[in-house]
Structure of Inosose dehydratase:
Amino acid sequence: MLSKENIQLGIAPIGWTNDDMPELGGEITFEQCISEMALSGFSGTEVGNKYPNNVEDLKKALQLRKLSIASAWFSAFLTTQPYEETAIAFIKHRDFLSEMGAKVIVVSEQGKSIQGNIDEPLFKHKPEFNEEEWVKLSKGLNKLGELAKEKDMKLVYHHHMGTGVQTAEEIDRLMANTDEQLVYLLFDTGHLYFSGEDPVFVLKKYIDRIKHVHLKDVRDTVAEMVRKDQLSFLQAVKAGVFTVPGDGSYDFKSIFSVLSDSDYKGWFIVEAEQDPAKANPLEYAIIARNYIQEKAGI
């Protein structure tokens, strides 16, 4: 079984308030969010838009609830903007996370991304990178990885629906084109499964480079509707395509087994963007926590 000494359990705030669609959970406060995270049995969180920007204020609020910061999302634009612009923003982001005690920095390339376009069909208009863009992305990520290393941190790349690195083939190319000592992988069950890939295959293939894990479940009936009706990513989220482990269609047993047999040490982050008016965040956090206890033993 997985070891409590090696694994830290966290949950993302996106189940309470959606940063990309503020109307989802707009009324839920930062304090309610982190209090319910602690109440449901988690020890960490990633950073949301409602979190204080001041390190002292954020630390105090989290310490009262015995929570810590695992990481935070960073949008890179290496394929569409000069590297220097991304680097300046990255250093500021890195330094904030370092002060909060985080050891990994979640990076996703948002050049050409359609994930935030409410009317753009997710599968029909999925972006592709050309050769020049792949070179810019790979070289830029290596440089950002060096910047992360300066603070004894690791860059973990987030493959994501609606971006140029979504499929297993694109993950292969990214891993092949980047330095394994500078660029690591964030493994997200939900994005792989929703994309039509086999999460276990990707996990086994890159287990040595995976340094951060997002546990996200998918409702098959909604995913099929998204493909059939050509919905966008945000429309898919509103329709309820994602949910927490233990409530959707994916069986995490094999995922936990592979991770148990590996040397993985780090965070498991439950992440399931849902409409809190339809899926009570505390209720679903508890569902996820109980499922992980039952299936992974932690």
Summary: The longest helix spans residues 131-150. The chain has one domain: 12-296.
